[in-house]
Every structure is written in C-alpha cells, then in structure tokens.
Amino acid sequence: MTKSLADTSEREYFANVRRRLPMFVIGGRLDRLEAFLDGYDQHALRHGGPGLRDWTDWLIAKRGQTCNHGWSGHVRHIALPDGWDHWDLPQEQERLVIDVLFDLLDEYLAEREAGLAR
Fold first, then answer.
1. pTM, entire model
2. What string of DSSP letters covers 27-45?
C-alpha cells in the first residue's frame, strides 16, 4: 500500500516532488519550482509547520558567504560556482541547479530531522 503524500515526512514529500516534478510544477522549470517552495514555506508557517525555516541561513553557512539574491541565489552560487549571466538559465544549467537544489534541500531536511540544522 502506498503512503498518502499527507502521511510522508518532508524529505519523502520532496523526494516525490523531485521524481514527479512536472506534476507539481508546470513545465518543471526552476523559477516555478522556486515559487512552489516559497508557497510551501509560507503555507507551512501560516499553519504551524516549520516550513523552510532557517533554509537561507543553512545555505549561507554551507556556502560560507552571503549574497543579496535570497535563497535561490545561494543555490545558484553553489550549483554554478563560476557564476551565471542571467536568471533565465540555459536548459543544461537550469537542470543542474534543479538537481543541486533538491540535493541541498534533502541534506538540509536530513540535518533538521537529526537536530543538526544550523
């Protein structure tokens, strides 16, 4: 029997989103994924969940420096350490950033579950 998404941990939920990205995010595009995550965070916070609390701080600590781009910029800096020219990335860079975003999100949530998140 398959678990309902409502009965999964946040890590399981986001692993499911990753596997079925176009089902959750129209076109599976990075900018829409970022909006989805912002919406997820705001909904969780409004309803008593942890959302992505401290996600930006965790990314800053992971990267070792800050920037003015918010959490999405930190993910891009980590995924594309040589920089990028435009927010609208070429397809191969966008795919890389999406993969790195999900890897980072899973690492963050694993640390948070273990009580290790910064």
1. 0.90
2. GG-HHHHHHHHHHHHHHHH
